[in-house]
């Protein structure tokens, strides 16, 4: 998943149809299958494309900065988060293209090609409640 042209930058691999490869799906799901990382990712998604400084992510999630850096690294390695330097701050953003590709992979054969059940469509539109 490492982009050889940009050391330290991670990208998802796609097949010829722009679908995520299974190894990248497994990496993304594995990264999200941990409570702190899921909370961080949801916070970054909620922040929008502008992202958030690491300190603000720590404040919003209640995760100590020492643990936060580990979790952000794991999300970055899975292609779910990216970072950029902005003066003295490191800004983290969700990688929406990976999120969209993951959702597309998971729902590619939803309802055998038929219209989804009304409850499923409503659940997809309503924002989930944070626990």
Automatic annotation (TrEMBL):
Cell cycle found in the keyword field: no
Residues in HTH arsR-type domain copies: 17-114
InterPro entries for this protein: ArsR-like_HTH (IPR011991), HTH_ArsR_DNA-bd_dom (IPR001845), Metal_resp_trans_reg (IPR051011), WH-like_DNA-bd_sf (IPR036388), WH_DNA-bd_sf (IPR036390)
Keywords noted in UniProt: DNA-binding, Transcription, Transcription regulation
Gene Ontology molecular function: DNA binding; DNA-binding transcription factor activity
Annotated SMART domains: HTH_ARSR
CDD domains referenced in this protein's UniProt entry, alphabetically: HTH_ARSR
PROSITE patterns: HTH_ARSR_2 (PS50987)
Source organism superkingdom: Bacteria
Database matches in NCBIfam families: HTH_metalloreg
Name of the protein in question: Putative Transcriptional Regulator, ArsR family
Organism of provenance: Thiobacillus denitrificans (strain ATCC 25259 / T1)
